[in-house]
Amino acid sequence: VSRPRRLIAGNWKMNGTGEALREIEAMAAAAGDLACDLVLCPPSTLVERAARLVRGTSLRIGAQDCHAQPAGAFTGDISAEMLVEAGASHVIVGHSERRMAYAEASALVAAKTRAAYRAGLVAIICVGETEAERDAGRALGVVAEQLAGSLPDDATAQNTAIAYEPVWAIGTGRVPAEEQIAEIHAAMRQGLLARFSTAGAEMRLLYGGSVKAGNAASIFAVPHVDGALVGGASLKAEDFLGIARAA
Ligand code: PEP
Fold it and tell me: What is the pLDDT of residues 163-173, one digit of tens each?
């Protein structure tokens, strides 16, 4: 199959106040000249202003999490419908920081993904093993299990992208060997093909974990890597665009 445009998504995590909007403005100004799709996920407090800022450009705004329910007594949470109203088009679900710090299991990630679909958001579903799991020879098994449990049956290449993010590579500057990324991405593709056939062939598989402008091109050269999910290097427009230009 011919490969879709690469998707480069930025995750600001709990970083960024109003003054950081100028970085988003600079990203938006350059997004139209890129060969890839570009999405930036600021903290929820900035989603509405960021979405207004990028209107008319090809930069899209996403959120970093959503609740599974559309509304209700869930203090502190935000629904997928609210994110859509604020101007988001994408949402990250199942990030390892949430799987670990908030004990989010794959069944909950699947429920949040269904909420994203219900509201019309594209879900960027994160999976990835810890270092202990890799050392125990369980990386492939953990990723396959998270993938199977986190994806609803109605996932398509349009409403879903998968991000493989080995936990030990996030924010550490440690990037897996190309063969390690290739092995996991090929296995994910096999699993998605078996379950979703054509949709599984076309679904974009991102790599995430210490991606920088300097290592992006070699990561994008790995088979079945259709983009990146970027944390630290998405905070500054110059760094983020450097990655996007390698895609
Ligand atoms: C992330 O948290 O999704 C991530 C990939 O972070 P970093 O790029 O900073 O490793």
Answer: 999 999 999 99
